[in-house]
């Protein structure tokens, strides 16, 4: 496990298979927002690290229902009692919480297009899961992928480019690719991912290039 700064005001806590993001002075000065909570087995170490590095967590935003993104939630809630924001339509997430016997309800159940405190816009890209959500920090043109996209080096390719999550991990792989068009309606010049390397140079242009080259069985959203 390691802690490092990614861009000004945003740190990452890196575990073996996934990372989480810490947004400092968000939504207000002196406050801490945690994006996702890693696996359950990471929960204790996550809490210890958050206490040591930041002292507090005021809000948790969960991006979707995979265990590696919400598994440590109970540990964080018990330690810090933060405000919790979760996608309203992500049945996988609510089912996992119920299966784990966790009586946890969101303070904010967000939907596509909602703007969370701190001017964070939700952009949902269904396909990886039912309501996989990217988070756009509109004041800074920074997009946090929420597993809508991975760094290309996760798939053994050169870093600096983007790919959708592997088909193995997607509920509907075609939708996971087609719905990436939802991201192109927004401006961002930095893209932070949970798997692989972040993209700091023209991520939107690279995503656009990727989608142009895909074959969609004669269907392309731009032609509708």
TrEMBL record:
GO molecular function list: hydrolase activity; metal ion binding
Keyword Protein transport recorded: no
Keyword terms, alphabetized: Hydrolase, Metal-binding, Zinc
Cofactor(s) required, per the database record: Zn(2+)
Domain spans labelled Metallo-beta-lactamase: 17-198
The keyword Hydrolase is annotated on this UniProt entry: yes
Protein name per the record: MBL fold metallo-hydrolase
């Amino acid at each position: 496990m390691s802690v490092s700064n990614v861009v000004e005001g945003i740190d990452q806590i890196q575990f073996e298979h996934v990372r989480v993001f810490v947004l400092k002075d968000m939504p207000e000065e002196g406050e801490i927002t945690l994006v996702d909570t890693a696996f359950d087995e990471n929960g204790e170490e996550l809490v210890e690290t958050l206490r040591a590095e930041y002292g507090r967590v005021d809000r948790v935003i969960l991006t979707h229902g995979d265990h590696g993104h919400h598994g440590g939630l109970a540990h964080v809630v018990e330690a810090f009692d933060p405000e919790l924001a979760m996608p309203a339509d992500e049945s996988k997430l609510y089912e996992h919480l119920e299966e784990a016997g966790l009586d946890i309800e969101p303070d904010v159940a967000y939907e596509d297009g909602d703007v969370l405190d701190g001017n964070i816009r939700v952009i949902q890209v269904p396909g990886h899961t039912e309501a996989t959500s990217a988070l756009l920090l509109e004041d800074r043109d920074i997009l946090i992928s929420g597993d809508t996209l991975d760094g290309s080096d996760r798939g053994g390719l050169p870093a600096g480019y983007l790919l959708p999550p592997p088909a193995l991990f997607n509920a509907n792989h075609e939708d996971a690719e087609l719905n990436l068009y939802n991201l192109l309606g927004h401006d961002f010049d930095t893209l932070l991912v949970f798997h692989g390397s972040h993209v700091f140079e023209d991520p939107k242009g690279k995503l656009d290039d990727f989608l142009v080259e895909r074959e969609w069985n004669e269907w392309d959203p731009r032609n509708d």
